[in-house]
Amino acid sequence: MTLYQIGSxxxxxxxxxxxxxxxxxxxxxxxISGEKIGEWYWNAFTxxxxxxxxxxxxxxxxxxxxFPMSVLYFNGGASGHxxxxxxxxxxxxxxxxxHAALSRDALxxxxxxxxxxxxxxxxxxxxxxxxxxxxxxxxxxxxxxxxSRKRAIAGSTQIYILFVLAEGLTLSIxxxxxxxxxxxxxxxxxxxxxxxxxxxSEVIIHE
Length: 207
Known about the structure:
Keywords: Membrane, Transmembrane, Transmembrane helix. The protein is mainly alpha-helical. Helix content is 77%, strand content 4%. It has helices spanning 13-33, 39-59, 61-66, 77-95, 100-124, 128-150, 157-174, 180-206, and strands spanning 3-6, 9-12. The protein has a two-stranded antiparallel ribbon with strand order 1-2. A hairpin with a 2-residue loop joins strand 1 (3-6) and strand 2 (9-12). The longest helix has 27 residues, at 180-206.
């Protein structure tokens, strides 16, 4: 794990990469769509973080009881991560009924976020090749979305699938296919595609 010292705070590279990806994706989406990113985006991250941190209590109850403050320093690990992803999926599925734009925006936004995260993390961990490939993919996705919006062209599912496959292939070059990050990406992609399908089914029902 790569650590960075920021003032008196020591932060893992993965946390810094997450914050960078959150900010960059939000700014990129503002440029692409001309709109502020939906509140679901920030709510989803906050929920993920809280569940991930709180899951430490569930999976390390004895340690927590002995030292309650440990929840501030530790998290639920891989198990907590998967639990947080499940909570995230449930939240998005519930939120899509309230926020109509979510089903339209979730796939491109989550794609931008994850690819941006991988680019930032690779850069922070000084993995030049991975950083370059992810950055190229991020720029390609952003350019496609920007041109599509400007020309009022609906994003093709097939093109999104190609981007997802490209990211999956890039991940597989640098880490095992069934490690945490590829599995996380697969989960997010499936969730986003399901939300997009929800929008289409709603349109069909109303018609």
